[in-house]
Specification:
Blueprint: H1 52-56, H2 61-64, H3 68-81
InterPro entries: Puta_zinc/iron-chelating_dom, UPF0153_domain
Pfam families: CxxCxxCC
Organism: Buttiauxella warmboldiae
Length: 84
């Protein structure tokens, strides 16, 4: 599955504990990543600087749903379910 245009849920909902260019301490959950462009696409998608955790997250119908809000709801649920 390809990413939906104008979504960016996977760059917003989950927390990222590893450094991201421009966010050396990672990213808290439900926060826009500084690498999320105005087009809601990752600006470092093909870069080796992209965190491995981000690269491992693959778009799927279950995760992405039919809308950005469905994707946000699912990813926020996963974030809460996996929190320490």
């Amino acid at each position: 599955m390809d990413c939906r245009p104008d979504c960016g849920a996977c760059c917003t909902a989950p927390s990222v504990s590893s450094p991201i260019p421009g966010m050396p301490n990672g990213k808290p959950a439900n926060t826009l990543c500084v690498q999320l462009g105005a087009d809601m696409r990752c600006k470092i998608f093909a870069s080796p600087l992209r965190p491995k955790v981000c690269a491992s997250l693959q778009a799927s119908r279950e995760m992405c749903g039919a809308t950005r809000q469905q994707a946000m709801d699912y990813l926020i649920y996963l974030e809460a379910a996996t929190a320490p």
